[in-house]
Amino acid sequence: MLAQFKIAKDASRLLALVEDAKRDETLLAVADAIKENETAILEANKLDLEKMDSANPLYDRLQLTPKRLDDIASDMRHVAELPSPLGRTLAEKTLPNGLHLRKVAVPFGVIGMVFEARPNVAFDVFSLCFKSGNACVLKGGRDAEESNKAIVALIQQVLTAQGIDTGVVQLLPATHEATAEMLGAVGYIDVCIPRGGRRLIDFVRDNAKVPVIETGAGVVHAYMDQSADLDMAMRIINNAKTRRVSVCNALDCLIIHKERLADLPTLGMILLPSNVKIFADPGAYGFLNKSYPPHLLEQATEESFGTEFMDYAMSIKTVNNIDEAIDHIARFGSGHSECIITNDKASAAKFEKEVDAACVYVNAPTSFTDGAQFGLGAEIGISTQKLGPRGPMALEEITTYKWLIEGNGQIRS
Taking the model in full, what pTM does it have? Predict the structure, then answer.
């Protein structure tokens, strides 16, 4: 695969010469082509879906539909309309010796993306990388192999029609060997971004020789405080848990103040239509075992906490106060998204200050952790690390910078 890496690296340098208007025109052309080639994309996706059990929670993440393709095209058009992140002056000053310094935003160069059964990622990554002047090398999973092939072929057809080097988007084989090759492509891949479950992210981080930005894995909590409004809590918890269970911002654990345990039967009723399985600690179990169906209720074990379920399942933890809630999040959270439901301003402020996560919510569901929802266009992933970008990564987060220094013959003594 060295040849593909070289092609992407060379193409990235040519892409830097493409005007912003031309990049936007090309993205709009790809968005139009998605609709025009909807049938072919869905046929390829159908081949992938036929290989997966429809009862698998990941089936929803793999599936493309006409509505989802319309949304993808809409996101791409939105990206095209956003201001270019390139050439921005991030800092500027003149030194006492007369040297003029500017810190200017520039592309990384080549971004390697390793992702699982999410064919929409191929479109999202291309649009963000292309707009920000980066070439991208994509490595999808076997589950979405046919979908990814069709998507990249479509993008490259549009690039050819636009007179742009197709090397700016490369698709590697859906093999473990391809992942290993990417992780070792020093000098060709400028940064690698894994997007998937904890196992994938850990493998990439532990084996990469190229720089890595960690994204994805979300062990997400919502804390129902003593002062929480019950109706609000029901809406938030249900939306965070059941909207889409296979995504990284879905709720995994409800933390509840002991004074609100009596509300659990009511909360359970809103989760029951989705057949959410609950792993309840002793305090919560005692309030649910007479109202919640036995086949959907189990007593929690230590393994019930810190688990990213990616399914219609969640745990419940009872706490005596907000400090215990924050301690539980600190122990079991992944630094992704956390939520408090409260009518107490002091509790909200304490939660915002002390919870260590990329996105911290007050009285809103974690389902909003998304680049498009944040008004950033599409996203390349949700960064859970602290060095570099954090939270939804869009255009600005996939650029770096360089210093431009202008002088007039000065020399250093």
Answer: 0.84
